[in-house]
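Mods, move this if it's the wrong board.
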Amino acid sequence: MNENIRVIALDLDGTALNSQKHLTLRTKEAILAAVRKQIRVIVATGRTFSSLAPEILAMPEIACAITSNGAVVNRISDGKVLLHNYPDPETVTEIARLIRDEKVDTEVCTGGQAYIGQEYYSRVLDGKTNRDVHYVKTTRHPVPDIYQFLMEHREVIENINLNFTTPEEKALWRERFLKYPGVTPTSSFLFNVELGGAATSKAHALQELLNEWQVTSRQVMAFGDSENDLDLIQMAGIGVAMANGSETVKHAADLIAESNDEDGVAKIIEQLIRDS
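Not the wrong board. Structure tokens:
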């Protein structure tokens, strides 16, 4: 294994966090061991800063967090925004009108927080959608009119998360969004499309950090499981896909880790440290 790794980038859901959305003791200890070896560890997630797992926020050893799929880079210790990359406001306006007219279930991320329309929120809590009820209840703030909210905050949108009932419906909508040059569609689970800025991605945000740190992408080990991790996996010197990840991500990876419920991330980091 490459002994010159200077940065480790970790996706959270389905990767560093187990199925109960927790960072296990073994994974935490592996992160701390890497930091002691002068390896910077960062988080790269689709979550907003306020939605980060408590175990992550309690670890100042983690250098920073790439949040909202690369729209923002936050310092862990106080949440300060170090970098941001928002969608074009005019494009956001066009999309807001489209999804309002077609009544697409929508969540909006801005200011490190995630918001959801009240009507959709109620359906989630009633178990009438494919969304994780606990996750939505603990990370989303309901607002009366999510489309109006999106318009009012169009200058500072981190992410627009659109949720569908089938993978086929998701695929059709993803194709529709490809015609908008001011946004980048991606996805973090089976039924959603997430819209960021034209150049927004975890990989783009990481490259900005690497430039600042004078580190090359060959010196990065990146972990992920979903479509929104693909660019990150491809850019890294060692791209690691989770056994529970999508086939596309696994095909692009250099290594396959055991699943997120088998401390797959910890085991690969431990091996890296042993080899170095």
